[in-house]
Design goal:
single chain, alpha+beta, Chitinase A, domain 3, 6 strands
Length: 266
Amino acid sequence: MKLKQSLRLAVLGTLASLGLAAGASAQDLVRVNGQTLTVAQLLATAPQALSDPRVRAEALQQLVREQLLADTAGMPLESVQSQIDAGQADVRRRLLAQFAVERYLASHPVAESKVDDVLRHVLAAAPTEQYWIRSIVVSTPKQASEVLAKLRRGASFARLAIDVSQADNAASGGALGWRDALSLPAPYLALLQQLKLGEITGPIPIDQGFAVIELLGRRHAPKVDAASLRAGIVQSLRKAEIDTYVAGLAKKAHIQWVDGAKGAGQ
């Protein structure tokens, strides 16, 4: 614990003093037993380190820890050289790929109008209501009807759920908490919209068997954070752009799968 804390303080102090200015890829960060760790090594480990202080601190701390361990390895270089070479090749490939992605996206930015269009559709489809429900799931319609009959005679829903439900929420008395249309089975939603608070209905055929549900609450869904949603949409559209770009590259490239490796590469 003391080592981890001291490393963290050293890392934070180094980062604070250097600031990791853009373009300082050759800048020394720290020396561990005479071995220099640089900004270039940090960025090779975590490309996001240049823009995210938390990532910077964690990645540099990890580099220091790895160097401390490497110093104690005591293995002849020849025995690990092939692994080192493979690791360096892997880092080089990843960095070049990342640079290629950034360059492509810089020249093919996601159109704001496209983001706005997707955002409008997502907001329009966002659920407006949430339901607090609990459920009991059994294997057959007959079992569900028996559960329903017991409940209507005054049996405890929670106790029955614990005793007979085969759902993952059985131990919590069948409670599902607040759910919206996107997180509920479609058969539940159709019935919930008609139920009054405290009402029970079933049997309902679902993938896991047959359910009996009780509506305990209804409320307006929380307002969607449009800014966070927009950021997620931008990332999704950027990924789609890259996926399309890479697919085009793959069509033009000569890719030869060896010894049945194609399945693992798809």
